[in-house]
Amino acid sequence: MLNISEIINTVKKLIEVRIQVLKNELQEEMSSIITRVAILSMMVIVAVLILLFGSIALAFYFAEITYSNSLGFLYVGLIYVGILLLLYISKDSKTIQGNVGTVLNTFLFFRKKNKNNDE
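Above: the chain sequence. Below: its structure as tokens.
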């Protein structure tokens, strides 16, 4: 017949092992999320650099066409004003917000939105 203290010690050890397993899982999940956030940050930085140099190149191209540096950069500025207006008009769109949220959830947390909500 088992002693009560042995049962208590076994239960304590089981609880300690379970806590350690949960800590390890949490640590792995956090490191995975931090890694994905770092990669996303680097992607944003590279995208901004591509946008910057592409904008400068486009401005100089327009400058060659119009024979005026000012007009070239003005046209690129007007393109960005147009993009800003489109974004401002569509800022309250639930469809766009849902799509961006789904992309971020999929990238950061590997969660996919299912139509039936079955996981």
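The chain has three helices and no strands.
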